[in-house]
């Protein structure tokens, strides 16, 4: 087919196009692999050398003519299609809107934020650490060597012989002491997930802990009195100004002396009820003076440095604070449960 014939046929076809679909079919007809213009351009190899330039120019003119018309008509068809869609899909803005379900801050996150705000205001640093921990940091550097009977108190999730999911955030205390190389005072808390093989109404295989550590030089006299004052401020902030504390001697491998800390029952005010098992007290914390072995193993000279440590489960604090009867509610992601906390704390 000659150049003039193709041009005339192309102009006629372009006039009869009424949609984007027809336009695309026409593109295949002329510029596809076996298209009319494509086959014409392949004929250049059979043209004498002195005529190739003129032939090539004419083929390019046909391509330019088609592409210009194609782009122009394509824009027109797209605009028409858009106008039709806008006309058929009108929105009635007077109709009532669909109610959007709003989320709420989880009670655990509320409790964590409150703890962090309190201790930061008291000059503490918030430090994080790995949840997949080594046996060395989770036990050995906390005065719990291999075979120590106190390890039986924590039924652990071991990944390998060396690695386990941390059973306590105390591992971060050891890492912090090593980072400070026994040269600087420490005032830190660590908040994070811990894991033990437990699962009932008051325990979970995964739970959140907060650990606190204060270390200073002996001449600054960081004592049990400072620990008691710190925990009193902590518990009154979390459970109410009328909260009282009771310290009972206990045993923890990483502190000596060690204390269990009870708070007066916030439900009955210490009179005795089903929550406190008629005792008037609820156990909430473990604490004590940092053991000299822990200081020595982590780079601090126990003759020059001393301090205190404490730890508690944040999940239990949230249960006490918000009156949650079963710890498992915190992890069930039930919107009906979470919606109860969609309010500002008073």
Explain this structure to me?
- There is one protein chain.
- It is built from eleven helices and ten strands.
- By secondary structure, the chain is α+β, with helices and mostly antiparallel strands.
- The protein has two domains: 3-88; 107-340, BirA Bifunctional Protein, domain 2, CATH 3.30.930.
- The strands form two sheets. A seven-stranded mixed β-sheet has the order 1-5-6-10-9-8-7, with helices on both faces. A three-stranded antiparallel β-sheet has the order 2-4-3.
- A hairpin with a 2-residue loop joins strand 7 and strand 8 (255-264).
- The termini are far apart.
- The relative contact order is 0.11.
In brief:
The chain has 346 residues and is α+β, with helices and mostly antiparallel strands. It has helices at 3-15, 20-31, 36-42, 49-88, 107-121, 135-138, 170-180, 224-239, 292-297, 314-322, 335-338, and strands spanning 125-126, 132-134, 157-158, 163-165, 186-195, 206-217, 245-252, 255-264, 281-290, 305-313. Helix 2 (20-31) packs antiparallel against helix 4 (49-88) and helix 5 (107-121) packs across helix 10 (314-322).
């Amino acid at each position: 087919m000659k150049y003039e014939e193709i041009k005339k046929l192309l102009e006629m076809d372009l006039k009869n196009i009424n949609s984007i679909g027809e336009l695309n079919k026409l593109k295949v007809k002329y510029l596809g692999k076996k298209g009319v213009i494509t086959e014409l351009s392949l004929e250049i190899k059979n043209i004498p050398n002195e005529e190739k330039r003129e032939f090539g120019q004419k083929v390019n003119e046909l391509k330019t003519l088609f592409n210009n018309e194609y782009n122009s008509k394509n824009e027109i068809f797209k605009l028409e299609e858009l106008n039709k869609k806008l006309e058929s899909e009108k929105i009635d803005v007077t109709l009532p809107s669909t109610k959007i379900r709003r989320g709420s801050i989880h009670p655990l996150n509320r409790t964590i934020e409150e703890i962090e705000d309190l201790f930061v205001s008291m000059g503490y640093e918030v430090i994080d650490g790995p949840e997949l921990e080594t046996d060395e940091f989770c036990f050995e550097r906390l005065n719990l060597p291999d075979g120590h009977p106190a390890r039986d108190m924590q039924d652990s999730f071991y990944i390998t012989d060396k690695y386990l999911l941390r059973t306590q955030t105390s591992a971060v205390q050891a890492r912090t002491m090593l980072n400070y190389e026994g040269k600087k005072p420490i005032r830190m808390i660590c908040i994070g997930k811990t894991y033990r093989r437990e699962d009932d109404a008051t325990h979970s295989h995964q739970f959140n802990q907060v650990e606190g550590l204060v270390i200073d030089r002996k001449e600054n006299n960081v004592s049990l009195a400072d620990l008691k004052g710190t925990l009193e401020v902590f518990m009154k902030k979390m459970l109410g100004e009328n909260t009282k504390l009771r310290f009972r001697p206990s045993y923890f491998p990483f502190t000596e002396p060690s204390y269990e800390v009870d708070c007066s029952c916030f439900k009955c005010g210490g009179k005795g009820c089903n929550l406190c098992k008629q005792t008037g007290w609820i156990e909430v914390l473990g604490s004590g003076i940092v053991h000299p072995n822990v200081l020595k193993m982590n780079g601090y000279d126990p003759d020059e440095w001393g301090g205190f440590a404490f730890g508690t489960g944040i999940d239990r604090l949230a249960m006490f604070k918000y009156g949650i009867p079963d710890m498992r509610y915190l992890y069930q992601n039930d919107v009906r449960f979470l919606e109860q906390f969609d309010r500002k704390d008073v």
